[in-house]
Amino acid sequence: MHIHILGICGTFMGSLAVLAKELGHHVTGSDANVYPPMSTQLQAQGIELTQGYDPVQLDPAPDVVVIGNALSRGNPAVEYVLNKGLPYVSGPQWLADHVLQGRWVLAVAGTHGKTTTSSMLAWVLEYAGMAPGFLIGGVPQNFAVSARLGDTPFFVVEADEYDSAFFDKRSKFVHYRPRTAILNNLEFDHADIFPDLPAIERQFHHLVRTIPSEGLVIHPTTEPALQRVIEMGCWTPVQTTGVDGQWQARLLSDDGSRFEVLFDGALQGTVDWNMTGQHNVANALATLAAARHVGVVSSMAIDGLSAFKSVKRRMEKVAEVHGITLYDDFAHHPTAIATTLDGLRKHIGDAPLIAVIEPRSNSMKLGAHRDGLPQSVVQADHVVWYAPANLGWDLAATVASSPVPTKVCDSLDAIIAEVKAQVKPGTHVVIMSNGGFGGLHGKLAEALQ
């Protein structure tokens, strides 16, 4: 069967392409912007990519067109599909029908930490010999691919609350019907499709409605929005994590790189790993609860976490030049920026820390999170903000109140010049964006040589 994917370089759609190829289909795809890590992964899998949406790519007609949620009416390829009456489907629907049917789905939902937690969970199950399938919106370094079918009943999916397609405005995760569900956290995001937090809570409630009464819902005790979701109706047993939760962590190091795990007050073991930050400790507790639900004993799961290598673009060390360390990080929401910088600060102590931030997500472009930006960077010593011409609001005025020395730049060259002026051996530089950032990581490393 020939499947053509529109919007194939999105992390979700790229992963879908890998699964379709593994099922034996002939897979092609196109995207407006073809960039790593997804483009590299797809080319390595032998999947043919086309830049842009010229309808000529749909002739001869594929058997089905999977349409990504980044595409809307007016897109030339979308209009061609509709005018020619070609069969089309959303990505989440295709996944549900062709991959998830009849499997024990473990879904990881929440505003932050979905990719990292689903990577942790897939790895812990792998470590325990359960060979799960998975679809993750990033590339876990323990696997080097973002998706695989797996040949056991277990399938781990990163469950996103973003909508499914221009013709299906339900959240993606409503399609997945998990048996085990982690709800990591919940705050306002995706301002381009949700008017407010209650609208997102409603979608999370729709997810909870699909979880069987023999399943399990896992959530932290510290999230009032998730508490409200559960109170809307929950027909499934619940386990809680964190402060006052059934699963708790006792930190043995400030940066979260060593901690003891307790379940119902009983010590389960000690995690000693390469990760840092309170947010990753929380992700680990949820992972342990989910793994236990499918039969992995805690001691085995804890050993698995200690061998976990994180995810590409999640505080990934990409270069070290003359004693200056460069990291690539996906954080683009004030909460994620704050927790990531906090984890690194606790890890590096008093060493100089520079953050380079691109406000690139749809919510950021709409200015939905701008009030949280000035305070999100308090753990950095210096912050360089990127304000492209099309941002649509005054970034400089917004970050002027930040307690941290800041510089707003309108080009990559200006960013590189500013970082070069600030760094010295021992400095840590974190580049934060949910896109390719024009290849800044490589350009900066080269400039520092």
Automatic annotation (TrEMBL):
Protein name per UniProt: UDP-N-acetylmuramate--L-alanyl-gamma-D-glutamyl-meso-2,6-diaminoheptandioate ligase
Enzyme class: ligase
Residues annotated as domain Mur ligase C-terminal: 313-435
EC number of this enzyme: 6.3.2.45
Limits of the Mur ligase central domain: 108-291
Family recorded in the similarity comment: Belongs to the MurCDEF family. Mpl subfamily.
Pfam families per record: Mur_ligase (PF01225), Mur_ligase_C (PF02875), Mur_ligase_M (PF08245)
Catalytic activity: UDP-N-acetyl-alpha-D-muramate + L-alanyl-gamma-D-glutamyl-meso-2,6-diaminopimelate + ATP = UDP-N-acetyl-alpha-D-muramoyl-L-alanyl-gamma-D-glutamyl-meso-2,6-diaminopimelate + ADP + phosphate + H(+)
Coiled coil: none
Keywords assigned by UniProt, alphabetized: ATP-binding, Cell cycle, Cell division, Cell shape, Cell wall biogenesis/degradation, Ligase, Magnesium, Nucleotide-binding, Peptidoglycan synthesis
Xref: Gene3D superfamilies: Mur ligase, C-terminal domain, Mur-like, catalytic domain, NAD(P)-binding Rossmann-like Domain
Cofactor dependency: Mg(2+)
Pathway: Cell wall biogenesis; peptidoglycan recycling
Matching InterPro entries: Mpl, Mur-like_cat_sf, Mur_ligase_C, Mur_ligase_C_dom_sf, Mur_ligase_cen, Mur_ligase_N, MurCDEF_pg_biosynth
An MF annotation (GO) of this entry: UDP-N-acetylmuramate-L-alanyl-gamma-D-glutamyl-meso-2,6-diaminoheptanedioate ligase activity
Annotated binding of ATP, by residue: 110-116
Source organism superkingdom: Bacteria
Known role: Reutilizes the intact tripeptide L-alanyl-gamma-D-glutamyl-meso-diaminopimelate by linking it to UDP-N-acetylmuramate.
All copies of domain Mur ligase N-terminal catalytic, residue ranges: 2-99
Signal sequence region: none
Record-linked HAMAP family: Mpl (MF_02020)
Native source species: Pseudomonas fragi
